[in-house]
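Section 3.1: Structural characterization of target chains.
Under the original work plan, the team committed to producing a structural model for every single-chain target entering the pipeline before any wet-lab resources were allocated. The record below documents one such target. The sequence was received from the expression subgroup and is listed exactly as submitted; it comprises 281 residues.
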Amino acid sequence: MDAGPGQPPVASESVQSDLERLQTEISQYPSLLVAFSGGVDSSLLLKVAHDVLGDHVVAATVEGVTLPSGEADLARLFCEDYNIRHIELSIDELSFEGFAQNPPNRCYLCKREIFSALKEAACKLGIQTVAEGSNLDDMGDYRPGMKAVTELGIVSPLRNAGLTKKRIRACAKALGLKVWNKPSLACLASRFAYGETLTKQKFEQVDAAEKCLRGLGLSQVRVRVTGSDARIEALPSEFDLLIHNDMPHIIGQTLKELGFTHVSLDLLGYRTGSMNEGLTR
């Protein structure tokens, strides 16, 4: 079983054990509303939940200003492929009190509102439990949104089953999910330095910048923003794509046309939660 470039494979017997634990975890719920972004984690959770609970599972995708473009369409197609009932909620995160000011607890403010809306939607559908796709690795980063998950009684089957990101990808591949090696995208708000005022225009700007960079062949990329400065995070193994021939000029000019004043490459490379570095927790 492949685990991705540069990573040791996950043994097939381990994958089977992981899937069985996840199935057992999910089977304790009569029905589930699964918060579904279309990423690898929530896709595995949704597929296994549907395998276990059948029509007693509903996928719910929140379409807001922080969702990268095209992701809602992919989530819709996934549910169509597997004949899973799917609802979509249109929510403007910028309307949440305090969110636009982007404080360090921004994720808590957002998750509290979104999961409250999902619980209300679940209640209307006669579903008692809402599930989300955080995993064991998520516990190692600063994630204030998990406080909202706990407060609202949202369940985290992947985390409870002890699954890491690597093992989730291995399970998704074993089940034949096309998204098994899909790059991580995350909420667009995570691209901005804390205290940076958030607007719809800024989300569109960074979304367009990352779409451009992916179009150049980068598999995993973030454009982190402080003021009008853009800092590109990419996998070190793909740095050559960024500095080959006249690529620096092309990228610099393209991002400047999108409104960024200065464009730089982060030599430490792509990493999750880099905007949390330096926070006193």
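The two ends are 38 Å apart (CA to CA).
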